[in-house]
Design brief:
mainly alpha; DNA polymerase, domain 1; 3-stranded antiparallel β-sheet; globular
Length: about 300
């Protein structure tokens, strides 16, 4: 099975152009499935039946895995077996007609505008790292890009004169995103005053660098966001994705249309963006309940 999984991951990379994080997720899910088969003494893929797959899903449920995790694992198995059948490595697909568990759509956590502004006030402008952090936070909130897209930016991806950036989203799809005036000013300050002091190699092309002069990682930026949220005395858990959620919600609350927000976020399907309309409706109900005398 190991060889089949490797070939499948190569197919997803070359033929479908999936992002590295997605490929790693597929590989991780399939390796865990392989471990389950070995534990069940079913090492041959030809011996896997529909009952085997159902047993695996029940095993995940017994392990306390979230519904979303089980649905993702099944999606990986479906894609894997469809590939094997298409390549004539297997005759039958044991996942055929298996339905994914219904997901409860949880509303994403968002910050208020005041909370965002409080976080943005935390970086120390006297330090190069503070100017960098302020620029990253401003850019993330101004554009709504994913944190993986943020840390992947190179100098050539940002056009300061025209006020936009170019990023590669999921499936290596390129999109242009406008940058707001506050983020532009923070970015210009970082590039002129902080980045040269953080750099070790002047040939380095990545936009945001760490204290070693190399590209800042997702994990590194996650720690930065967590620290500033604590300093801003925001008690609930905050991640870089919270700023993306806040970006979308604040746009819709101020009259942006759903299609435009979909384009800015890089969502392939508008149904993914629609969850933010549920969030704004929930907020309207809260405001109504607090403000109307006969609510």
């Amino acid at each position: 099975m190991q060889d089949f999984v490797s070939d499948f991951i190569a197919y997803l990379s070359v033929e479908r152009g999936l992002a590295r994080n997605t490929l790693e997720s597929y590989g991780r899910d399939l390796r865990q499935y392989q471990d389950y088969l070995l534990a069940q003494k079913t090492p041959q893929l030809q011996a896997v039946s529909r009952d085997t797959i159902v047993g695996y899903l029940l095993y995940l449920q017994e392990q306390g895995k979230a519904t979303a995790t089980i649905a993702r694992r099944l999606a990986a198995l479906k894609a894997f077996y469809q590939y094997l059948v298409r390549e004539r490595l297997l005759q039958d697909d044991p996942t055929r007609n298996l339905e994914s568990p219904k997901l409860e759509r949880r509303l994403p956590r968002v910050l208020t505008v005041a909370e965002v502004e409080e976080i943005l006030r935390q970086p120390d402008p006297a330090q190069p790292s503070g100017l960098r952090d302020r620029a990253m936070l401003e850019l993330l909130y101004a554009t709504g890009i994913r944190v993986s897209e943020l840390v992947s930016l190179n100098l050539g991806d940002v056009n300061l004169e025209q006020g936009y950036l170019r990023c590669l989203g999921k499936g290596s799809k390129e999109r242009l995103v406008p940058i707001g005036s506050f983020a532009l000013r923070s970015l210009e300050t970082y590039l002129s005053q902080a980045r040269p002091r953080l750099l070790r190699d002047p040939r380095e092309q990545c936009l945001f660098v760490n204290h070693h002069g190399h590209r800042l990682t997702r994990q590194g930026f996650w720690k930065i966001v967590k620290r500033y949220a604590q300093e801003a005395q925001i008690e609930r858990s905050i991640t870089p994705h919270t700023l993306r959620h806040s970006f979308a919600t604040h746009l819709l609350e101020n009259g942006a249309d759903l299609r435009s927000v979909q384009e800015l976020l890089g969502h392939a399907d508008i149904s993914t963006t629609q969850i933010y309309t549920h969030l704004t409706q929930a907020r309207l109900k809260e405001v109504y309940a607090r403000a109307h005398p006969r609510a």
